[in-house]
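Priority: low. Protein: Terminase. Input follows.
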Amino acid sequence: MHRRRLACSASPAASGCSTSRKPLLDRRARTMHWACSTDPIPDPHGRAAKLLAFVDLLRHPKSEHADKRLDLAPFWRRILARIYGPSDDQGRRQVRTAFIMIGRGARKSTTAGVIALAHTVGPFRTPNSLVVSAGVDREQAGLAFGEAASMLALDELLSPRTKIRAWENRIVHVKSGAEYHAISADADAQLGKTPAVVIADELCAAWRGRTAVDLWGALKTGTAKVPNALTIIISTAGDGRDQALGLDLYRYAKRVESGEVVDPSFLPVIFEAPADLPWDDEATWRLANPGLDAGFPDLASLRDSVRMAKELPAFRRQFEQLHLNRWQDGTAAGWVDMAVWDEGSAPIDVKALAGRTAWLGVDLSKSFDLTAVVLVLRDDDGGYTVVPFCFLPTDTVRLRAANSDQPWREWESAGHLIVTPGSVQDEAAIEAKIVELCTTFDVREIAFDPRFGGRIMTRLAEDGHPVVEHAQSALHYTDGITEFQRVVLERKLRHGGHPVLRWCVSNVTPVVGDTGLVRFSKKRSADAIDAAQAAAMAIGRAMHSDGSTIYGAKDWRLDDVLFG
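Result:
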């Protein structure tokens, strides 16, 4: 029987992305993805080579080649090589979860079908193993199955050795008993399954509410029973509505991608267009659609969609979500790009700043929440230096260290978190820090969130300190928030890389009212934004110190608020 020639290597070199274009902005240059490079990918045990050899044997009914061979895009080959190639210290596949976010029309279902076949009839088949692809409904769940079944039907060697049960969305390898099953969100029916491979289709875009959580929990509980099981999430971005599961996974993937979390078992593969790039620029589209130059998605169709989206705001939101991977409520994309934020991380010599004019923002909290006192100084280039002081009681630190993935103990040891005895905030310690800062610096104003600050505000005012009340409303916050964002984007904010402030900023979601006024919100109840709030308060007071405000300028426009 004739078999096609193999043409693969352990570390594919070809790239599916154009490398000849000069990026329009440095921001684009930093966003070029490793999947579009030619750097070698480790494959010490030859697993990637086996998988790609199997890929080269597959045929696809829509292939334009005469022999119908599957021409998997080079960037997909590199992603597969990165999943299957690297090994851990015990020689097993290092990656156990892959999070792949890519624009619509990128042939996600075909790739999912390839992975399913590799573990059902291909080189990674094991006796009686189970591969599951999951979607929120039967139609979504059937997409990857349909791709797998159509490729299998064209294979004259494998097809007689399998049973394709289309009415059940099931493929069975007769001799080994290995099985591939596409399922939908009937979570209770999946509780007894122990899959070796789970492929979660459009988890971020379509899995919503309790049903999604139950399905995910059932499948992940099953994989925990199988050694070195593999979970692959392939999705576009969501719109944020009732999608906490997708948001949490996306945010974790971003933290792993940035190096904030070290997790070799989790592979983030994120193609997205940064929020500071124009949505209707074709160079921006390519950042979320690495197959665009190869014809998928169709460039002409995207151009047609953009023409319509320029006239219809709802269509623009849909375009940005599905083709640029921009979450549409701001909860995932964040307030500012954290890569830009990190450019202000040069060390700050606080002692050398003594005596300078300064402003304080104070966000006091309930007994178990973070309290922040942020010192702000105006710099000669129109920017600011911010120095945060964050407080938590020791009992709260103990609970948070046990129940969250933030390095609370490391922050405490490094002096980034001031931990006070007991289970409630130590007002005396907070007040003492404020007095110390007023002694060290020429503090013009101490802006307080008045909700929990009444007693401290009264004592400080009685002692002659310049206390001002900062009402908790968008009207009072907009100037400070807008100025805060401006100096971050202009690289004129110096924060010394303070990790607690960084965490708070990463948790911020801007909420814009009908009038264009802005306030801060947070993504989840477990998050904190207190240090970011306090910084915005102090920056707002500092920018008003000479009487200036964007609303007083003659040429002020609503577009000057950067959250339109």
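The two ends are 63 Å apart (CA to CA). The longest strand covers residues 384-393.
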